[in-house]
């Protein structure tokens, strides 16, 4: 039964999957609350899609336990499959069918009663009215993705798993999409969303960062940043590329990365870092100690996990 007695929409631990003897998801646990927008970040190949497929019952986990929508994540995979909305990484439509016809097709697959009504409600909810006769193949990236969202909402799921929904979509369409997500979350829907965009990560209530199949950090943006205990300097000045190359191999400098016209220099040991940059803290460079951003922290975590794997 769908008990939901612990009030978490997703509550799993130790989820693990091996492919060809390699652990691509390695004991990942996740708790997601109702109405939350939870971000799932990490480099390509880190196991995000595999984890999502295990959550929604499409892939059998090797290890792990817990619940999704109150159902046992291992035993009740059929039930879970029917009750989550899953937007796959490279979603596709019938390009020769209109928006309305595509949605009707999806509604048919789910065996939805009052199909016509459900489809027209969904068109309205996602702001697709006026375009419903347009062929899916002729839609721009932003509208395609809105259609995809409508399609995975058609059976009225409480949880949406969106796998890189905004990859390759222009900034304006991405903003519109996120507004839609926030509106749906306010109506009580829960989201787990993978993304590579930092601005999107910052729009999530909480997030997890994974690399090499392991969960390296999770929490609110502020918690993730604080937990890294990273010291970051921002540098302004001429020929920062030359400075980058010089700094990269100094003790205490974990990374030196260009951010627009600035260089961010970060390390976990504030004193060692300060000693290494001391000779460069003069004209023409201008140094400012800043609060690290998410991207600084992710680069740092990534570097650390590579070290762990090397040793
Ligand atoms: N069905 C599969 N068979 C073998 N290897 C797979 C399969 N699915 C994914 N992988 C591998 O597992 C790793 C994690 O992939 P994936 O979960 O797609 O990562 P992400 O979504 O974070 O990019 C990758 O190295 C990928 O090649
Ligand atoms: Mg993926």
Structural domain count: 2
For the largest beta-sheet, the strand count, sense and barrel status come to: 6 strands, mixed
The CATH topology assignment of the largest domain is Rossmann fold
Average predicted local confidence, pLDDT? 93
Distance between the termini: 46 Å
In the CATH hierarchy, the architecture of the largest domain is 3-Layer(aba) Sandwich
The percentage helix is 25-40%
Helix and strand element order: EEEHEEHEHHHEHEHEEHEHEEHEH
* Total E-strand runs: 14
Instruction: Using the coordinates above, name the CATH class of the largest domain.
Output: Alpha Beta
CATH superfamily of the largest domain: P-loop containing nucleotide triphosphate hydrolases
SS summary, helix count: 11
Walkthrough of the structure:
By secondary structure, this protein is an alpha/beta fold. The chain has two domains: 10-219, P-loop containing nucleotide triphosphate hydrolases (Rossmann fold, 3-Layer(aba) Sandwich), CATH 3.40.50; 229-310, 2-Layer Sandwich (Alpha-Beta Plaits), CATH 3.30.70.250. It is built from eleven helices and 14 strands. It has helices at residues 48-55, 77-83, 99-109, 115-125, 141-153, 171-186, 198-201, 221-227, 240-247, 270-277, 294-310; strands spanning 10-19, 22-32, 37-41, 63-68, 71-72, 84-87, 159-163, 190-194, 206-211, 214-219, 231-236, 255-259, 262-267, 286-290. The strands form three sheets. It has a six-stranded mixed sheet with strand order 6-7-8-3-9-10, with helices on both faces. Strands 2-1-4-5 form a four-stranded antiparallel sheet, covered by helices on one side. A hairpin with a 2-residue loop joins strand 4 (63-68) and strand 5. Helix 5 runs parallel beside helix 6. The radius of gyration is 22 Å and the shape is globular. The chain binds adenosine-5'-diphosphate and magnesium ion. Magnesium ion (MG) binds next to helix 1.
